Amino acid sequence: MSARYGMVIDLDRCTGCGACMMACAAENNVPPLPQASARTGLTPLLVRKVSNGLEGSDRREVFIPILCMHCEYDTPCVHVCPQQAVEVDKATGIVMQMPQRCLGCRYCMTACPYHARYFNWWDPAWPKGMEKSLNPGVATRMRGVVEKCNLCHARLHAAKEKAAAAGKREIDPADYVPACVEACPARAIRFGNLADPKDPVAQESQSQDAFRLLAKLGTEPKIYYKSKEPWVQAMAEPNSGPIVEAKHV
Amino acid sequence: MKVTRRDLFVWGAGAAAGLVFTPVPWKLLDDVSIWTQNWPWIPQPPRGPVEVKQSFCSLCPQGCALKVKTAGGWPVGIAGTSTNPLTRGALCPLAFGAHQLNWHPQRVRTVRHNGVPSSWSDARAAFAKACSEGPVVIIDGQPGRAASTVLASFAEKHNGSYRVEMSPETRALMPFESWTGVSAFSLGYDLENAYTIVSFGAPLLDGWGVPGRFTRLWAERAAGRSDPQLRLIQIEDSLSHTASRAWKWVNIRPGSESAMAAGLARALIEEKLVSARGPMPVITISAAASQSGISESALGELARTIVARPPVLAIASNHNPEIAALNVVLGAVGAHGGVVRRSKRTGKYIPAEAQIPNARAVLIDSSVPWDFAPDSNAEIFRFVAWDGGLQKCDWLLPAAGFLEELTDIPNAPTSAVETYAIAPQLSKPQFEIQSAAQFLVSVDPTLPTVEKVIHSRCEELFHQRAGTVYGQEVTGVAKFDSAQKLEAELEKASTWVGDPPPPGELRCELREWPPTMIAESSQNWASTWNAPVLPPLATKLYRESSLREAPGRRTV
């Protein structure tokens, strides 16, 4: 039976510590290029801070981890890729990016409604010797290709290998946990198989507080968010309120 | 048949058109794109057997438990250890890139004397000469370690002085030291049993204490609930990460935390919301309200809200006697869900910033944060793994980086129970490094080594027959056959956790309301780091997101 991997991110629990961003970047060998900026850097998972737009004691802020939403239907990046470098994996539902096929046209970046894709402007480079600290499970990528979250696909491979070595066809769910989920100190990010009705994450995705960003587009993202705050839920759709991205504090 | 020029063109065009329908061009394109992504100058991850090992982080006094993935002997990935009872699998964001720090460009690679490369033997000779000429001050940043015992023994033996640079969390507990007679290093917060926590600017969710302790506690008992089981009230001058997640944020004027604490104490006593347990603050409610920028009625309402759900605990971000005194008024000292005594050890330390008159030399351990600068004209021997620049030191001595030496991990500063763990060395040192303890042993070979002190500590734990060891399994110390077996278990990065102290063991006497003292507060995770540098990935992500700015640390 094919799985549909997805997440539920509880925004009421997120403290904006950034552990998920760090763990993601370390797991995926993202280079710490000093020349990169907020526009040109690689951040497969980016925590944004948004506010309710009010001032003084009425002001409230939440932190929203933004990553590839792994759209299930009419996946925009898949449609526009001239190289077939993006595809939705039928077995897992993960939107896969194949850097070997990518020619760097960046159509997919334009098409992505979540701005969750990043272009590799420079060859990967680390300070001398630091390549010894890279994760051997993930290859470094060349400049000129687009990158994004692949739900730590290398960890899925490792889990499959472990299952195969034990003579099993199905992986143990405990063996496949993306780095950001593992890192979250508040357990705000939860990961599971949305196609399995018994999976707690699948059940949580159907709760009253759960919502998806830009759900109206009908692309069926597999990343769900959750909050009890009405203004946070309203933020999920455009033109719904005075949402302002907070600046540095 | 005559082949014409036209036939050649037709054949060529046909071949070109036909080729498109074969796999050849696509395979070529694929191969070329793969080939162009594997240039020899593109860094490749290390090769070798992949293993998962356990250790502890020693980059700040919290000592979080780590699961370290290694490849070919090099750490290549960090995660939390979920079986550890204190950290519960959580780490601060910086820890996830800590394994990169050993390769940081600002790593101190050689001994330097006034900026010029020198040698360990020269440093040793200079230090021995200084010891023979006058008193030596030794400064430690994480007391309670085996290395600390070596440092303190040297100071004692050579008529020197052993001092401690304290973390902001320990400084916040310092006022209780004089009121209870118990060392601030033996006190902690019983967060698990508190139902209301009033934080005066302490970054409880953003770099305070062990992240796995309070963040998990808050997530389980408070997050997303309109009437949470644990009420976190943040009194702060700006909407910090903690304030934005608190049950209630009280926006006050900058620097008015002390006035606010005194005003709350006065309101609690005047309105008889608590049974009077301490002296009346000098400040009036109207003055406190005026200084902190909130109304008198709001202050009174806040006082009533605070005591509505006891036990209540007030936490300061740094040394602040008035906030500590509020805990006395609230009856939180020595009570469930308050300030508790975790250990019977009574060791008190001289703070590092105390005047250092007539010192001939100052030796600073690598556990002391780089920002600390001794107020002395003595010759300074500073052990450090990374050079943060802009600090005067005569001798810069390369110390162990991340996981490059065996060390032990004593209590975290805010822990309510006593703990002990051993952090094995997991990374090969790349340069000729020495810890301050090794250096002192080389100067005076009669001192005990770190390994011997760890061994003695394990024997002491074994003979106490108290506490529990949390590793792959949970085992009471009483079940271990010998001290060697206990030590072997701890060397596998298990954690010994002492039995919780009985309540009411802490008597507190506060005769008069303390004077106002304002200390700088810590800001976030990076504030408590020993290292003057951040992992390059943290620098990058702070720069590329709007989450926060890199806080005054050197960047790559």
Question: What topology does this entry show?
Answer:
The complex is a heterodimer of chains A (249) and B (556).
Chain A: E1 5-10, H1 19-27, E2 46-51, E3 61-66, H2 76-80, E4 86-88, E5 95-97, H3 107-111, E6 118-119, E7 146-147, H4 153-165, H5 179-183, E8 189-193, H6 200-205, E9 210-211, E10 223-226, H7 230-234, E11 244-245
Parallel strand pairs in A: 1-10
Antiparallel strand pairs in A: 1-8, 2-3, 2-11, 4-5, 6-7, 9-10
Chain B: H1 5-20, H2 24-35, E1 50-56, E2 65-71, E3 74-80, E4 112-113, E5 116-117, H3 120-133, E6 136-140, H4 146-157, E7 161-164, H5 168-180, E8 187-189, E9 196-200, H6 211-221, E10 231-236, H7 241-245, E11 248-251, H8 257-270, H9 285-292, H10 296-308, E12 312-316, H11 321-330, E13 339-341, E14 350-351, E15 361-364, E16 379-384, E17 395-398, E18 407-409, E19 419-423, H12 436-443, H13 450-464, E20 468-470, E21 474-476, H14 483-491, E22 495-497, H15 536-544
Parallel strand pairs in B: 6-7, 6-15, 7-14, 9-10, 9-12, 10-11, 15-16, 16-17
Antiparallel strand pairs in B: 1-2, 2-3, 4-5, 4-17, 8-13, 18-19, 19-22, 20-21, 20-22
Radius of gyration of chain A: 18 Å
Can you identify the CATH class of chain A? Alpha Beta
Strand elements of chain A, count? 11
The tally of helices of chain B reads: 15
Summing up helix and strand content along with how strands pair, one would put the structural category of chain A as alpha+beta
DSSP strand (E) fraction of chain B?
A: 15-25%
CA radius of gyration of chain B is 29 Å
**Helix content, binned percent of chain A:** 10-25%
The CATH topology label of one domain in chain B is Dimethylsulfoxide Reductase, domain 2
> What is the structural class of chain B?
alpha/beta
**CATH architecture classification name of one domain in chain B:** 3-Layer(aba) Sandwich
